[in-house]
Amino acid sequence: MSEKPSGAGESTLTVVLALLVNLAIAVMKAIAGVVTGSAAILSEAAHSVADTFTEALLLTALRRSDRPADRRHPFGYGKERYFWSLLAAVSIFASGAVFAFYEGFRTVFGAPEEQTRPLVGYIVLGLAFALESVSWTQAFRQVRSESKKHGRGFRDFLRVSDDPTVKTVFLEDSAALIGLVLAFLGLGLHQLTGSSVWDGLASLAIGVLLALVAYTLARTNRGLLIGRQADSVVVKAIWHRLAGEPEVDAVVDLLTMLIGTDRVLLCARLDFVDTLTASELEIACVRISAELHAEFPDLDEIFLEPVPRTDPDLRRRVLERYGF
């Protein structure tokens, strides 16, 4: 998880850059698709339109999720980022994949279509690839920078990251570059063989690609909306930190939940040493909470609950949750 000010600013830059690039590419592809009659290029135009809508949804996610906590939402609005990012995944499927499948099936099983002015298609696809690379490079740099900051591999960081906006931009830009290659192949094979079936197959492949990206992103945001545990590395560090406190006899249970990007809710059930007075226990809880906030900036809310480790009901619930 990144530092809040710089991370949020870089996420916004990544999304805005992707939106501007995809908007320009969508217009170019739409014109080229009409001029060439290529189903694959028209599918790519729909892909870019879907990506443009996606970026708009992600900008909404960034803006609304940063609102401070209030009376109705005491834990803030951090999960709004997950909600709007989930809608972005739906947009990729509904606007991009469905249209690509339609164009693909229409071209493969419909009447043969004549190809016109393929050179226009090649030029537009080349320009689109160059522009898309700019957006992809920005997303790649941000993911690589944050993964190094947290000592994780690139793919591992993408898997555990609690910022769906960056992951969405990176995956959709990666899919866009692959889609452009597929469209180029479909256009070229159509020109070489004279058969529009290749164009249709390229469109179907683009549809499959977009459906996979949409599914991956939807699954990620579903987990975040339900309430995912914080990074396991952070959880273990907090556990060891609490276990080392002189007033703590044992860490009985540790519950964490992501309530937004770089925002973690912590509930720790601790068995304190029996010799503490009520006043000493209160002072220890305040001190431990302050130290945790200082050491782990992502901890947004901290609840420390004194419990006896021998309580049978609590032990049963812990065993059922963790299996040990």
UniProtKB/TrEMBL annotation:
Keywords (A to Z) from UniProt? Membrane, Transmembrane, Transmembrane helix, Transport
Primary place of residence?
membrane
Which N-terminal residues, if any, form the signal peptide?
none
Q: Could you tell me the membrane topology recorded for this protein? A: Multi-pass membrane protein
- Give any Pfam family that matches: Cation_efflux
Q: Identify a single GO molecular function assigned to this protein.
A: monoatomic cation transmembrane transporter activity
Where does the protein end up?
Membrane
Query: Which NCBIfam families does the entry mention?
Result: CDF
User: What's the protein name?
Assistant: Cation diffusion facilitator family transporter
